[in-house]
Structures are given as structure tokens and as C-alpha cells.
Design brief:
By secondary structure, the chain is of the alpha/beta class. The protein contains 12 helices and 14 strands.
Length: 381
């Protein structure tokens, strides 16, 4: 059999070109976010953050010599749509890793799909149910609802507040928060003397607040929700003339909440990450360079204030990128293992130390207690 030297050279060149094209294939970052709908003030800064840093990383040469490609969908704050988009990311877009959903409901609708497909998934939602029990392919960046309840109750205890009314949203985040709040109240000597709920699309929550106001012995109110609902609660609270201390969860840790609630937000306390008080951190705080850098980049790019929700997206993307680098590529099992092995990662949410039994990697020290004063965040000492 005779071989043509020309054909061999041609064939070799084609093979080398194919290998070169394969090596240059982009790393696909999939994302399903609530950019519109009731949870938009969470999803919008998340998308802006992912877009900004994917662009920045690509300008600097990408990851392992490959460009990043962000493939994202807006679920409109609808968990059912999140499930459909996750399926599209997996089956059609063939993404390498998923960062997002925005909400607990969206995240939990996506979990069965990513577990079956065995794709690393870093959620940006808050509920503890996302990572407890541990799911092999699922991780998260925000602090949990249980941590929020514990941080709030610790502050209440210091103020001598032990009789508390809980007002929670009927969303996945709100109901998980309700469950976790009820579970840890006794640990802090707190008695829930009232327990009311509201819907995420409710435009008036005065009836529930009136019931709370008329409850004997109540000393403080704790609201567990996200999006626009907690701002409506805060306005109604003021309108009804309730003067009891008002606490919110980390579901409102955004300048947008202050804007939506207006003067009624004055005096509200909530647990939040260091990102909201970047300029107030000590010079030697290991988080300071990260949160100051993110704040400046976001402000410069989008001409708007940062939120912890955008910070969650930053942490999710950077955890994924860091894991891909350590895995030496996009082999999904290796990337998953690398995420789980993350130690000492400094993000906007705190220092992250993952393990086989902890797919979030944050402890209570990552939460600050903040109070809104003069339409700004003040650190509660």
C-alpha cells in the first residue's frame, strides 16, 4: 500500500488544527437567574456581576488559555421556568458548570437535573436545604437562613428581647427561613409569640402586622423574606405606627431595600456580609481588598450600588474558576472535587472552607449585624 507524503502532511495538519480548535473551545458557564419578577433586585446584580467578570477574565487571557462563555437565562422569578432553563443548559448548551439560581425555589427545581447530569452547580440562594443534606454536585455561596436566624437572635438576646413575632414569606426562602428560625429560637431563649406569613406578590401586609401589633408581650418583629415584600412590610410597619425593634434577614442585604423602604427603613437591623460595609472594615481585614475591589469595579462598570447578591455571584464564579484551574480543565468530576476541596478562599461573603460534609464553607463569623442609619449601613458593635 502506497501513502502519499502530501496526504500524510495534509492529514497531520488537519488533525493538529482539530486539536487546536478543541483546546480553544470556550469554557461554558451556565446560569439561570431571576433578572425580572419579584426577585429582580437579587438577580439583576448577579447577572451584571457575571457579565462583568467573564469579560474581565477573558481580556486577561481566559482560564487555562481558554475563553469563558456565559450562557444565561432569566427565569422571571418562576421556579418552574428555572427547571426548564436548567434542562436547556445541560442538554442543549452543554455547559461545564452552572452558577445560579437566584432563589431557593429556583435552585431546588434545578437540583435533581444537575445531580442526574453530574454537573457542578454553585447556587446563589440562601436556604440551608440547598446543602443540607449534602448533595454531591450542589454547592452554594450565601450564608444560610439558619445562620441569619442565629445572628438575629444573638443580637436580640443582647438587647433583652425574648418575646418575638415572626413574619415569613411563603416562598421557598421564606418557608425554609421560618422552619430554621423556629428550630433555633429555643437555643437563644427566644419565644415566638406570633407567627404570620405573607405572599411574595402581596402589596399590603397590614392585616398580618395588625395581628402582631395586637399580640400581648411581643417585644420585636423578625421578617424573613426577599425581594420587594420585606420593603412593603417595613413601610406598612411605619404606617401602622409600630415602634417595636424590626429585624430583617439577609434576604434584603442591598441598597435597593433602603431605596424601596425609604425613611421607614431607619433603625432596621439585619445580618449581612462585609461587602455592604467595605469602606468601614479594618485595613488588615483579609476581606477588605476583595470587597473594596469588587465595589469599585461594579460601581465603575454599572454606575450603581453594590449588593450582597452580586457578591454571591462573584464568589460563585471565582470558586468555579479557581476549581477549574486546580482541576487542570473542565472534567466535571475533577472540577466538583476541586470545589469541595476549597480551603481559605476569601470571597465577598467571608472565608470559604468547603469539605465533603459542608458544601457552603462559611461560619457565623462571616455575618455582621448592621443597622440602617441615615439611609446607610452602620455596623452594630
Amino acid at each position: 500500500m502506497k501513502f502519499s507524503i502530501k496526504k500524510i502532511i495534509s492529514g497531520t495538519a488537519m488533525a493538529m488544527c482539530a486539536l487546536g480548535a478543541l483546546a480553544a473551545d470556550p469554557i461554558k458557564i451556565g446560569s439561570v437567574l431571576s433578572v425580572t419578577g419579584p426577585a429582580a433586585f437579587l438577580g439583576d446584580p448577579e447577572l451584571k456581576t457575571l457579565q462583568m467578570y467573564v469579560e474581565d477574565i477573558n481580556k486577561k487571557g481566559g482560564v487555562l488559555g481558554r475563553q469563558l462563555e456565559l450562557v444565561h437565562y432569566d427565569d422571571g422569578s418562576d421556579a418552574g421556568k428555572a427547571n426548564g432553563f436548567a434542562k436547556r443548559l445541560i442538554d442543549d448548551d452543554k455547559v461545564d458548570v452552572i452558577v445560579g439560581g437566584t432563589t431557593t425555589g429556583a435552585t431546588m427545581s434545578m437540583v435533581p437535573l444537575v445531580e442526574k447530569a453530574q454537573i457542578p452547580f454553585i447556587s446563589l440562594a440562601g436556604a440551608v436545604v440547598i446543602v443540607e443534606p449534602v448533595k454531591k454536585w450542589v454547592f452554594k455561596t450565601p450564608h444560610t437562613d439558619r445562620m441569619a436566624a442565629e445572628r438575629v437572635f444573638d443580637d436580640m438576646k443582647k438587647r433583652g428581647l425574648t418575646k418575638v413575632a415572626l413574619l415569613s414569606e411563603t416562598s421557598g426562602f421564606g418557608q425554609s427561613g421560618k422552619k430554621e428560625t423556629e428550630a433555633v429560637a429555643g437555643k437563644y431563649g427566644i419565644t415566638l409569640v406570633a407567627n404570620e406569613t405573607y405572599g411574595p406578590k402581596d402589596t399590603d401586609i397590614s392585616p398580618q402586622l395588625t395581628k402582631i401589633r395586637n399580640t400581648a408581650d411581643v417585644q420585636a418583629v423578625f421578617v424573613f423574606g426577599l425581594g420587594q415584600g420585606p420593603a412593603i412590610v417595613t413601610k406598612n410597619y411605619k404606617q401602622l405606627g409600630i415602634t417595636l425593634p424590626l429585624y430583617q434577614s439577609h434576604g434584603v442585604a442591598s441598597e435597593e431595600f433602603i431605596k424601596l423602604a425609604g425613611p421607614a427603613a431607619e433603625g432596621v437591623r439585619l445580618p449581612a456580609a462585609s461587602l455592604l460595609i467595605a469602606d468601614k472594615l479594618a485595613a488588615n481585614d483579609p476581606q477588605k481588598p476583595v470587597v473594596v475591589g469588587y465595589t469599585k469595579a461594579f460601581n465603575d462598570k454599572w454606575k450603581t450600588d453594590v449588593s450582597t447578591f452580586g457578591g454571591h455571584a462573584y464568589d460563585g464564579l471565582m470558586l468555579a474558576v479557581d476549581a477549574i484551574k486546580r482541576a487542570g480543565g473542565t472534567d466535571k468530576a475533577k472540577v466538583r472535587d476541586a470545589i469541595e476541596a476549597t480551603k481559605g478562599f476569601i470571597g465577598t461573603g467571608g472565608k470559604v472552607n468547603m469539605s465533603a460534609t459542608d458544601h457552603m464553607g462559611l461560619d457565623l463569623s462571616a455575618f455582621n449585624m448592621l443597622e440602617i442609619k441615615n439611609s446607610d449601613w452602620a455596623l452594630v458593635k
